[in-house]
């Protein structure tokens, strides 16, 4: 996602603590009753009924908004108060009618309170034509108050029919479903639910366009994720290859592609099964670059493996979404150990330190998005990771199976570079409109 878009959103969600905002609200409400018309507090009641009861704003953000509005009431700038409330009300429904409905008590008292809202009417019409208003607003609601249904409903309406491919080697399930969008929406919980079903999750290629469009689509995938005709192999050959900017670990037909300088979300390439270890922060490569790098690969060494031992591990460290992981020991003519962590990525250069510390061949994170977001347990790449204990080790057959499942994906209509640029343009236009509206509120 565009870092500029994140920057603008962060301005809206970095607020004082709940205790402080409650104190601010009580103080400003008392002063409003003393120095202004008590009737004006009907607006506060309407805001609470619409924004809090409909899970648009949580208590901390709502108290902060009302405290700010109460201060404006005290200064007798009711048009400016209408502007603040009207803009915030767009989180309830991104329609040009919404601000006028929510600020009804204010402009009934003073019709001039409508004036600053008029520029936003044109902004919303433009944003709607650019298909940017709905996604931006519902995304913000999900981020700010864990209200995922409006976002998922919107995304599903623009979604794309897709086919999820899952390749199971032993009990490691390599899937091309992306574990996003964020926190507990769409398919973010999928790696954790896969673990509960006995699978070890690992990402293949692709990015947010391969998110399940909703939690219900994710449950459909999980329900269908059964393997009844596993092909049990007497042995599996593993190849280790080295290129100019990548290392590749080829297990059966799955190629785990590790970028030496870091990468984020490998693109898919036709006729190749690429797996993303997501183990070093970096930019996302494009398909052409990746194809060129794959062309530089040279065979380094191989392993002939007869079975695999899977151990559950308890972990400690920064940036972990779950303090459990898996250590996969392929029983080969030479050691091959693969550690899988529940994190979104790894701090740059830390991957090699962790490998050296525990004599690992490969380290992967599952690209976990349950801590992605702003204003709570935010995204942090894994670092300072230590294995606290290794337990529940079990030898399992080197089985192999493939499952394909139809589902509705997020698609690339909304989450693409072009879409992010449209949203960014709307945000910039919104800042200009806000400036104009504030000026109007101050002079009417």
Q: Can you tell me the number of structural domains?
A: 2
Mean pLDDT across residues? 86
- Largest β sheet strand count, sense and barrel closure: 9 strands, mixed
The radius of gyration is 26 Å
How many H/I helical runs? 15
Structural class per helix/strand content? alpha+beta
Distance between the first and last residues' Cα: 39 Å
What proportion of the residues is helical, as a percent range?
25-40%
Total beta-strand segments:
14
Instruction: Estimate the global geometry from the Cα principal axes.
Output: elongated
Binned strand content = 25-35%
Q: What pattern of helices and strands is seen along the backbone?
A: HHHHHHHHHHEEHEHEEEEEHEEEHEEEH
Low-confidence stretches: 5-12
Protein model, in words:
With 444 residues, the protein is α+β, with helices and mostly antiparallel strands. It has helices at residues 3-13, 18-35, 41-52, 59-74, 78-89, 98-102, 104-109, 118-129, 133-145, 149-157, 190-196, 215-224, 287-294, 350-358, 417-443; strands spanning 160-169, 172-175, 200-203, 231-233, 236-242, 246-251, 254-259, 273-275, 298-318, 322-332, 336-342, 362-365, 383-396, 398-409. The chain has 2 domains: 3-147 and 419-443, no CATH class; 162-412, no CATH class. Helix content is 39%, strand content 25%. The strands form 2 sheets. Strands 5, 6, 7, 8, 9, 10, 11, 12 and 13 form a 9-stranded mixed β-sheet that branches. A 5-stranded mixed β-sheet has the order 3-2-1-14-4.
